[in-house]
User: Fold these one by one.
Assistant:
Number 1:
Amino acid sequence: MKADHVVLRAAEEQALRLRQMGYTTEDVVGTEDHLAMFATTEAIAAYHSAETLEQDLRQLAESKPEIAELREIGRSLEDRPIWALRIGERQVSEHKLLFMGCHHAREWVSVEVPYLLAEHLVNNAGQPHVRQWLQRGEIWVSPIVNPDGHEFSRTQDRLWRKNRRTNIDGSIGLDPNRNYGYMWGTLNISTSSHVPSDPTYVGPRAFSEPETQAVRNLVASELFRGIITYHSFSQLILYPWGYTSQPIPDASDLSTMTKLAKRMQQLIRGVHGMTYTPQQSSQLYLTAGDTTDWTYGEYGIPSFTIELRPDSVEHGGFILSPEQIEPTFEENLPAAMEFIKRIL
Amino acid sequence: MTPLQGDDIERLLQMPLGLDVWERGRDPDVVIAAANESQISELERRRLAHLERLYTVEEFVSEFGSRPGDQPGARNAEESDEEE
C-alpha cells in the first residue's frame, strides 16, 4: 500500500471492473513470472507433488511388501488418486490409527511430516518397539487428502487453500476441513462460511466432496482408534470441539486428550525447543465441519489436529523453507510415537 | 486486526466477513488475515477493527519464498559443515 497506489492481485475481469470505475491500472507482473520468483527450484524439489508422493509411497510399499501396502482410498474431483499407506503385519486387526495431511493445499509441510512418519515406520520396522506395534495392529498414513488443491498451489497460486470444485456461483473450491458431517454447516462466520467464494466455504452439504468421502469411507471401514491430522501453521495441538467453545462433555475423553496433548507438547519441545501449544480447537477460532469434530463426534476416538511450523506469519506462515522440513518432522516424531504407544 | 476499544475480536471473527484468517497471535486479541481491498475497505468503513497492513500477497510470497530457514534445527550448508 502506498500513498498514491496499491499493488494487488487481480484477474483480468477484476482489472477491467476497476478501470470501468475510473481507476488507472498497470500490469506489474503476471502470475507465471511471479511464480518463477518465489517457487524456487529448491522449494519445488524439496516438497512432494501428488505425483512424487505416489512414487515414494509406492517405493516404500515395494521395499517392505510384508508390512506395507499402498491403497487408493478415493479419487479427487480432477481424478487424482488419494493414497494411503497401510503399515502393519496383521491382515485383520482392531488396532488401527490414521495420520493424514494436506487438507489445505498451501500447507506443504503437512504432507511431509506424515510421509516421513510412514518412511520412518517402514524403514524401522525391525526396531523392537515398531515391530511390536506392527504386530499388534496397523498404522495408516494418507499424506495428501487434497491433491488437486495441492497441485494448484504448486503451479498456480502458492496460497491456495481449498479443493478445486466449481461452485454454483462460478467461484472455485470449498474447504475440505469444513466439509465433514459432524455439526456441518451450523456456523456462518469468517472461519466457517456459506459463501462459495470464501476461503472457508463449507460446501453445499456435508461430505459433498470426493476427498472427504474418501476419508469418511476409510474411517468407516477401518474403525480407527485414533487420528492425527496435520496442518500448518501456528504450532498448536488442537482437540475437539471446534464448533463450540464448550468442552466435550465426556470427562474421561477430555482427560485422555488433554493429557496426551500435554505430553506431546513436552516431547516436541524436547527435540529442538519449539513450543506447540495444546488447546481446544475453538480457542483458535470456531469451525464447524472439521475433521476431528467428526472423528470424535461420530466415533468417540482421540482426535488431534497438529498445526506444524512455523509459529507465525513473521517466520513465513504457509511458506516454510525446505530446511525446516526435517526439524519439523524430527520434533513431531516422538509425539507421533507417543500417540501410537498410547492409543494403538 | 485488533479490536476497537471496548470491543472483542471474537465478535469480529463470528461475523460473516469472508476473511482468510491465518494466525491468532499470542495475544488473543490480534488476528492476522489475508483480505482483498474491498474487504479491507468494508472493515474500515464499518469501523470494525484497527487494521495494520503487513504485506501484499506478492510481497509476502516473494520474501518468504526465498528466505532460508531461521528456526531451530533448520538445515543449511553452514550448519552441515559445522556438524562435520
Number 2:
Amino acid sequence: MPSSDSDPPEFTRVDWDEASSGRRRPSARTAGFALALLAVVGLLAYDLTVAPEETLPPLDWDVDRSGWFVVVALVVLARYVFVPLLADRDRTARHVTAFLDRPAGVLALGYLLAFGLVGVFGPELFEFTYAKLDARLQPPVFAGVNASVADGYSCVGPVADGVCRGTWQYPLGTNYIGENVVEGLIGGMHIAVKIGVATAVVMAAVATTVGTVAGYYGGWVDDLLMRYVDVQQTIPAIVVYIVIATLFLGNVEGVSDGGTLAFVLVFGLLDWGGIARLVRGEAIQRRSAGYVRAATAAGASDLHVIRRHVVPNSTATIVTALTRRIPLLVLAQVGLAYLALNSVRPASFGELLRVSLEGRHMPWYVQWWTSMPAVVLLVGLVVACNVFGDTVRDVLDPREEVR
Amino acid sequence: MSDPLLNVRDLRVTFETDEGVVRAVDGVDFEVRAGETVCLVGESGSGKTVACESITGLIPDSTATIDGEVVFDGTDLTDCSASTLESHRGGRIGHVFQNPQDALDPVYTVGQQVVEAIRIHRDVSKTAAREEAVALLDRVGIGEAEVRFDDYPHQFSGGMKQRAVVAMALAPDPDLLIADEPTTALDVTIQRQVLTLLADLQEERGMAMLFVTHDLGVVAEVGDRVVVTYAGEVMESAGVPALFDDPAHPYTRALLACLPGRGDPFETIGGSMPDPTDPPDGCRFHPRCPHAVADCERGDHPAFRSPAPVTEDGPDAGPDRDGAVEPDHAVACVLYDEDHALPAALEVADD
C-alpha cells in the first residue's frame, strides 16, 4: 500500500558539480583489512628482527614462515568470507536455517570443524612426548598383538596368552620408534589444515580474479588468459613442485626439503586453472544478466560491477570448486610426503603412512593401527569436503531463490 | 528554440555476425527536448532498443560499430572519455529496462540496491542514503517501504520490482530517463500504474523521457512526440495528436490499424520484417506497403517531408513542398513528394 502521506517526498535535487568532487573514502572493511594485514606484517617484522628465537608472548606460539602465510590467508578469509556473512545477518540467518535442514551437510561441517580445530590447536594443547624405543609398536587400547611377532618386543600393557594388550597410555598405540599414534595424527591434521587453507586462499584469489576478468571482458583478454590456463594445465603443479623441490630446495636425510611454504606457493599459483574456467563460465553468464546491464546503465564502473555483482553471484561456484580442490591438495601433499619428496614438520599423514607401510619389526597388516587411522581421517576429509561443498552450493546458489 | 537536451544525428549501429553485417540502426535522427516525452515506436526488431542503448554506449565495442552523433546537453557521447560516459550513465541519463524480473541482483536486498544506485554517483553516508532510499521506495508506491527495504527481489512481485527499478533509475536525479518497454513484461493493471507513476514523476521533476514501446496505446497516454521506426530507420516523426489524427506514413497507418478498437478487428501487417543483413533498397517498408509504387523500390531511404496537405487555413498550415522539413511532423515516404499523387487512402481521413 503506497504511503498516504499528502505531501510525498520528492526526489532530491543533486548539484552535480558538488557531488562529483573528490574520491570515495575507503570503506571500513577496506581499512580494517589493511590494518589487519599491517598488524601481521608488524608482528612478522618483530618476530624476525627483535625476537627471532622467542615465541610470541600472548600465545606462547612460535610461528614459522608457512605459519605466517596461514595467518595472512586467515585474514583474507575473514575479510572476504566472515565479514560479509556477519555484515548481512538476515541473509546469513536464512542460509544457516537452510543449511541446518540438510543433515548430511551439518554432519560434514561438524567433521570439518572438528578436524580444523584439532589441526589448529591440537599441537598447542597436547603435550608432545618423546618417543620411547622400548614402548614401540604398542597396540591400541581394546586390541592386541602377538608379542612374539617382533624380536625384542616389550609390551607396556598386560600380556595374556602371548598377546600384548593395549593400554590407555597409548590409546591408539605407538609406531616403530615408540611415538604415540595420536600425536602423529594431530600433527598430520595440523599440516593438512595448514596446506588446505593457505593453498585454497591463494588459489581462490588468483582463480577468481583471472576467471572473472576473462569472462567479463571477453575478447582478446579472454583469449589470452584462457590460453595461458591451457598451457598451465598441461604442466601439472605436482610435476613443477617435484622438479623445484628436488633440484633447488636441497634435501635433509634424503628427503627433499620442500616445506609447506614451497608447496603452498607452487600449488596455489599453478593449480587454479580448473577453478578459473568455472568462474569464467559463471562470469560470462552474469555479464548479460539484467542487473549487470542495469548497474552499467546506472553508471557503475567495470570494477564496481565485477565486485558487487559478478563475483557475489559466482560464490556458489567458487566455494564448490574449492571444496573439491582442498582434499585433492591435502592428498597431493600426502602423496609427495609418502614418496619422500616433501618434508614438513610435524610429519604429515604421508610420512606416517610411509613409515608404517614399510613394516619395520612387524608386517604392515599386523601393525594396522599405525596406518588405518590416518587413512580413515583422510577418507573422512575427502567425503566431508565434497558433501559440504554440495550443500553449500545448494544453499548459496542465488538462482534457487528466484524460483 | 533552445538546443534540445538530446540530439541524435545519423546514428548507425552495425553488428558483425556470421550471416553478414546487421544494420540494426541505420541513420536514425531524433531529438528530445528538456521536459518532454518522446516515444520511439516500432515492431520488435526495428532497432529501438539498440538505438537507446547506444546513446550511453551500453553496447560493447567488441560486438558493434556505432557511428553518428549523440549530443547530450552539449557533450557528444559517442566521442568522449569512459569516465564522462560513466558519469552520464545513471547520473544524467537514467535507464529502465524491459524485464524487471532480471533487473535486480538476487544477492542483495532491494533496499541495498537502491542505496547502491544513490552512492554510485554521490558521496553520501550509508545512513543518509538509506533514508533517501526508503523515501524513494515510498514515493514509487512501495508500501511499508521501511520494512520492504530489507526484502530480497524474489519477495517482490513483478510490478513492485519495476517500481524499485524506477526508483533506482531516478535516485541520482537524471535529466533524461530512457524507459525501454518498461511495461511490456507487466500485466495490464500494473502497466497502467507504472505509466501513471512515470508520468507523475516526470511532471514532478521536469525530466525528459525517451520512451520505447511497440504499443501505440501507451504512446497516446504518455507521449508528447512520436518517432516511428522500421527496420532501423525513422519512418515518421510527429506530435502525438498529429500522429493519431493524421498519420502520414503507410507504416504508421498500418500500425494504428493494428490497435484494438481501430480498423478491422485482428488486423495485422502482412509479411514480416526484412532480413536485417540485406534490407531492400529504397523505402524498407515497400515490400509490405499497400501503396507502394515503383519509386519506392529505388534509391536510398526517402527524404523527410512535411505531410501537411494543402489547405486554405493560412500560411502556417500551408504546404512546404520545397524540401524544407517542417520540424514537428516529418515523414519519409516518396508519396508525399511533388511527383506523386497521394493515393486516396492516405488523404486525411475525416473520422
